[in-house]
Design brief:
about 325 residues, alpha/beta, seven-stranded parallel sheet, 14 helices, 7 strands
């Protein structure tokens, strides 16, 4: 039994075990847990604490976990508290997830100033988990200075993390594409900083070429009002040798400071909150489809579509009318 009222003061005091239990609470789909979770998150808003939220994405094998461990250890070495929310892909067949990020970040997971929480993506698309936003708020209330949000890492459509973070960092591998890749829309145009990882040993020349390709491509993109001169930009790093991490952190801090001073920081977070509200409404409407009368009608209409008695579009229109009886009478199917 999770007691939300008992968790709040422990979490505000920075208790990592309380934070883990609180995230378990907000990730639960049980109706009574959802009520407790909402009350807990609302109560913790009064702390007013804000962390620097950094979203991290990249293709599998680019070295996200190695980068996060090296980067996180650098930050904790500077006296900062770092939380890592790692989203692990869920099986489309079994629904299970490996959740092995702590194993990959062995040193960081043992650092007293760090907290690592892997979560399954479940059915959520866009590279993040359903309740990552609430987990971020809990980490902020617990006093963490930096929250790193690692996405599933599957490709160019992982743009949902942009709605959760203050800065979006994209990790790329050497020789992972040419200049044309850099001007593709989607995840590329969301990135604030592109880091070409593995810029060491025999891969360093390829990493420098890849960085130059993307730097050139970024200059062709339309300027964004939330960026100062020179952003977004591409840089090389080596997570294994911890080279370039301090320079990348300096760029992140400079961009965050500029956005705070210019007002873009506050505007971004306000817009993100609005989109989160709209997303909750959409999920609520989808949940309404699981109610018994609607589910029965959905099954009947699905059978009619399979039999060819109606089209998918007409059947969907009929079901939507059922959810909104205030509309005009709809013909029977």
């Amino acid at each position: 039994m999770i007691d939300a009222a008992e968790l709040a003061p422990r979490l505000r005091a920075g208790d990592r075990r309380a934070l883990a239990r609180a995230i378990t609470l907000v990730e639960s789909a049980r109706a009574d847990h959802r009520v407790q979770a909402q009350a807990l998150v609302s109560a913790l808003r009064a702390t007013g604490r804000q962390a620097l939220r950094i979203g991290l994405s990249g293709t599998p094998g680019v070295g996200k976990s190695t980068f996060i461990e090296s980067f996180g250890l650098m930050l904790t070495g500077q006296g900062r508290r770092v939380a890592v929310l790692a989203v692990d892909p869920s099986s489309a067949r079994s629904g299970g997830s490996i959740l092995g990020d702590k194993t990959r970040m062995d040193l960081l997971s043992r650092d007293p100033n760090a907290f690592i929480r892997p979560s399954p993506s479940q059915t959520q698309l866009g590279g993040v988990a359903r309740r990552t936003r609430e987990a971020v708020a809990l980490c902020e209330a617990a006093g963490f200075d930096v929250v790193l949000i690692e996405t599933v890492g599957v490709g160019q459509s992982e743009t949902m993390v942009d709605d959760l973070c203050d800065l979006f960092v994209l990790l790329l591998a050497p020789a992972g594409g040419d200049g044309l890749q850099g001007v593709k829309r989607g995840i590329m145009e969301m990135a604030d900083l592109i880091l070409v990882n593995k810029a060491d040993g025999d891969l360093r020349p390829a990493a420098l070429r890849t960085c130059a390709d993307y730097a050139g491509a970024l200059r062709l993109m339309r300027p964004r009002p939330q960026d100062p001169e020179g952003f977004p930009k591409a840089m090389t790093v080596s997570a294994t040798e911890r080279a370039g991490l301090a320079e990348a952190w300096a760029e992140m801090q400079a961009l965050a400071a500029w956005r705070r001073d210019s007002g873009h920081w506050q505007a971004r977070r306000a817009a993100q909150a609005r989109r989160a509200f709209e997303e909750e409404v959409r999920h609520g409407l989808l949940a309404a489809l699981a109610s018994k009368p609607v589910r029965a009608e959905m099954e009947r209409l699905g059978q009619a579509v399979e039999a060819g008695h109606t089209t998918p579009e007409a059947a969907a229109a009929s079901l939507l009318w059922l959810l909104n009886r205030a509309g005009d009478p709809h013909p029977e199917i």
